[in-house]
Write a structure and sequence with these properties.
This protein is globular. The termini are far apart. The longest helix has 43 residues. β15 and β16 form a beta hairpin. α3 packs antiparallel against α4 and α6 packs across α7. The chain has a 25-stranded antiparallel beta sheet that branches. By secondary structure, it is an alpha+beta fold.
Length: 475
């Protein structure tokens, strides 16, 4: 009997200890809940309004409003002649916080067995002013580890949304799962997302993507900007139309997209890479495709300055006229333009490879704006004089002739050419066009390829080193 009492007393002691720990960790959980949302404010310019937090022994509840930098009703605000900032669009999050050290209950659809400080289960509450459709069900679960790490899993449940004004137009989201892992000090992030796909369209127009996956990591740099790498994979993307002959059925299969960015000495560099196994457009099949684009030397401080001024314009949009909005935007651009040019932004489009049934297409494009020629009071009209652009491209001669033939054939048919001679006549016309452009020096024929070089410098355009009678200088 005494042994049973000891067991009961021990169990009661463990239960009391658990409740005490959960109550203590509930206070910690409230701080974690607010810290989890804080990056939304610091990194995206959103505003948070904590409308209530009710502490419980094992669970707590919270209501937080996320205010977006968009006026809720610009027209009504403008007509009312409201002074100051108009009412803004907001989203309401309702959360249940389950306290550790072990979860007393599990979040829906998940199993958490490791020691945790808290489990935060949130869902989006739709309101009339919400910019998110009423049918869209968005939920997230944040697991705060015992050592401080945070994993956020977001789910967008399958939904079909009817779009207004369209003939049966719809958006069908097949569902998405996303995990976001934050480090203890909120400096490093790991992101993993996957989804079944998205469809937008009706009987005539359709965009379908997925399944897809996205992984990446980013770090907060010394400049306070999150930079890092992301890698995405999309098994299929289709854009096309059903019965409209004027439209093109476009498909890319096994699409990979990668992004890498870095920040150093107050400058930002971004690199995008894209590859696809096959490309299909209309009756034309090609692939594989690879493409890399680089943008570098952008002043982070100036980018943030423009973001701030653009958000200010958004906030004022409901209270001022469209003409005043345009003036505010132009004034912002005029102030940003000289500063953006000074650190020599550079754009590079490289590694463009497209294999087609007729041959290969390869090319290289670069553009740099050199800061040493920039004046303090530069105007948009002077920008062409500062451009230093060089583009080189090469295509297989067979591909050039095939594309030229495809362009010429409809013109011959429209002109009344006999059907049996259209193909031969179109090819003959394509050959004559190639010979003519080569004789003018616009195109160069080398090793079975057609090449061309294009430059802009000091406001003058040149093709293959020969200036052409078009000047960008305005003279």
């Amino acid at each position: 009997m005494r042994k049973h009492l000891y067991v009961l007393a021990g169990a009661a002691g463990v239960a009391a200890l658990y409740v005490a720990l959960a109550w203590f960790m509930g206070a910690q959980a409230e701080q974690k809940y607010q810290a989890l949302l804080e990056p939304l404010v610091t990194q995206s310019g959103l505003e948070l309004v904590h409308e209530g937090y009710e502490r419980g022994v094992l669970t707590s509840t919270a209501r937080t409003r996320v205010v977006l930098p968009y006026p809720a009703d610009p027209k009504a605000t403008r007509e009312a002649g409201a002074a100051g900032a108009p009412e803004r669009v907001s989203l309401l999050l309702e959360s249940t916080i389950i306290h550790g050290p072990l979860p007393f209950r599990q979040p829906e659809g998940r199993l958490v067995l490791k020691p945790v400080q808290a489990i935060i289960e949130s869902k989006l509450v739709h309101e009339p002013a919400s910019v998110i459709p009423q049918e869209l069900d968005i939920r997230s679960v944040a697991v705060v580890g015992a050592l401080g790490g945070i994993t956020v899993s977001t789910s967008v449940l399958p939904v079909e949304i009817s779009l207004p004004g369209g003939k049966g137009a719809r958006v069908f989201w097949k569902g998405m799962e996303q995990e976001l892992r934050l480090s203890r000090d909120m400096v490093e992030l790991e992101i993993e997302a996957r989804g079944e796909g998205l469809e937008i369209g009706d009987a005539d127009v359709l965009l379908a993507v997925g399944p897809f996956s996205l992984t990446g990591e980013c770090r907060r740099s010394e400049e306070g900007l999150y930079v890092g790498e992301m890698q995405g994979k999309l098994d299929n993307m289709t854009m096309g139309a059903g019965q409209d002959n004027s439209s093109i059925d476009f498909k890319m299969a096994e699409l990979d997209v990668a992004m890498r960015d870095s920040a150093e000495n107050g400058l930002l560099a971004i690199e995008y890479a894209l590859s696809a196994k096959t490309v299909h457009a209309g009756d034309w099949d090609a692939g594989p495709l690879s493409l890399t684009m680089i943008m570098r030397n952008f002043d982070i401080a100036l980018i943030r300055q423009y973001q701030a001024s653009f958000q200010e314009m958004q906030l004022k949009a409901g209270a001022i006229s469209e003409e005043e909005q345009q003036k505010l935007l132009l004034d912002s651009l005029d102030g940003l333009l000289p500063g953006l040019l000074r650190p020599s932004p550079e754009f590079a489009l490289k590694d463009l490879v497209l294999r087609t049934p007729h041959g290969d297409l390869t090319g290289l494009f670069k553009m740099a704006v050199h800061g040493e020629t920039v004046q303090e009071n530069i105007t948009p009209a002077q920008v062409p004089m500062l451009l230093d652009i060089k583009a080189d491209a090469a295509v297989d001669e067979g591909l050039f002739l095939a594309l030229a033939k495809r362009f010429i054939k409809p013109q011959l048919v429209e002109a009344g050419a006999e059907p049996e001679i259209v193909d031969d006549a179109a090819m003959q016309s394509a050959l004559q066009t190639l010979d003519s452009l080569a004789a003018q020096g616009v195109l160069l024929r080398e090793d079975g390829h057609v090449r061309s070089g294009f430059t802009i410098k000091n406001g003058v355009i040149a093709v293959n080193g020969k200036p052409i009678p078009i000047s960008l200088s305005g003279q």
